[in-house]
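By convention, the token line describes the chain's fold. To illustrate:
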Amino acid sequence: MTAISRVDTVTPQFINELNANFATLDAAQVTTFAQLKAAPLNAPAVINCACGFVLEDGRGGQFAFDESDTTTPGDDALVLLDSRGRRWKRVITDGVYRLSWWGPDKVGIIDCAQKVRDWYTAFATARVEGHAEAGRYRCDTAVFIDLGLVQQGTRMTGAGMYNTIFDVRNVPTSPQWLFYAGGGSPSAPAEANYWYIASFSISGNIGGSGIAVQWGTDDASDAINSAMVANVWMANSNTAKSPTAVGVRHNNTVRCIFDNIVEACGTEILTRTVSGAANNGSGKVRLTLDDTTTLVGNMVVTVAGIVGTTEANGTQTILAVVDGTHVDLDVAYSNAYVSGGTFTAYKGWGIAQQLRHSAFCDFSGAFGPAGTGVHITGGAPYGNIWRNPTIEMVDDAIKQDVATGPNSFFGGQYAVYGGGYLVSNTGAGSSGYLLIENPNNGSPATNLYASTGKGVDPAGYYMVHIRGYYGDGPQLIGVGASPFTWINKTGQVQQVITSGGVVSTIEYKGPNAGSVFANTYATSGAILVPPGAALKWTHGGAPTAFVSPLI
């Protein structure tokens, strides 16, 4: 006979029922929730060790009979009521609450937003780890995760990036998924501290100015402090192709570590058919395409399969979109067109990462594809660092349009495809400071000098400082009609060397000097020009001028 152990004191009624059904003790078996819930008077007698071992996939587990607890809030994933209203409590031996206990659909067909919310509330209230097994969990209404339920934090984990996917693509409101700390106000913010969040994905899809995933509320009335977020993929597929949509917005995250994350907002592959190539009249290749919609000047493109004008094949840059069927490439024309050709461009949409209010956070991972990889804006985002970021397939790698303290990028890979810049729109005269240290410029952004359109633009670039060699060597400045002005938009101190020509004056203007130039009393030689400063040549014959970074 199997020994009987009880959760609580055994009552006489229980003993009578047990004795009356003693013969069924070893023969009976409970394998489903339905069997346990419909248990007759002899229910405890048919349970091995006064426990039910429910074998239903995912939701199964061990349940202990608890007669002393008479509160009956209702059936849920943790407590079952049998036919007599008796409570069976789930036995949890490892301190982990599993999402499967709430019975969500795992293949992305049935909405399970409320089950996800109930799971989160249960494990956060109990201050234990919540684990979501592999699967796609479709949520048709927004999921707001109040990290403030556990101010000193716990763990929320999945079975791995891309293995556990919370699918909020059908949510019509923004943000589609929100992590926040409830109950605060701007003067007395709520806090959530020391959370560990890892190993799952959140897949959104919203256009307009919508946000797929957001950390913290926009009014900065809450603070998410010292969280560790690792191996989490968060993206807005942005099928509406909106330039203002956001993949992930960060509000009031403080001293958090976002390690090996992916934040994206979508890209479009533009494929065109080439039907002709010719000299554009200035010695460059002019291609005839079936359509030039969405193409822009300075966009990096891939051309392949042209017979005859083979010099056009490869990675090229658009010099100009001439009309609805013609573009000029920055490649010398030398051979007549024969046939064939495909033309592929990439257009990013929206913002992969948008930083507002956040301070002293540490980011590593991929930020793109998107229109803008990292957007520093709003509030006072300062003291943040990005370690070896991958910012590729973007129009602008970094955009900063707010006066703020220092933010820094160390190392990393940058590839600007859409005709944009390494750093864009920093804001003239802002007090912001942006440091980019030793960037590695992946193809096609093989150099970031202003002459290629891949540098720092348009205004306020004197607050951007780039250290490390990132060019292709000295670049020729095409000194035009007198007087000609060159502005250092590269983000680096540049050495400008002037020789030849008929130069009467070379004037210099500092980055904060407005429109005031000062005479250098030189007509040739080398001059160091910091970011945002400018030189102006007055000449009767254009000189030769080269620029190279001081490293």
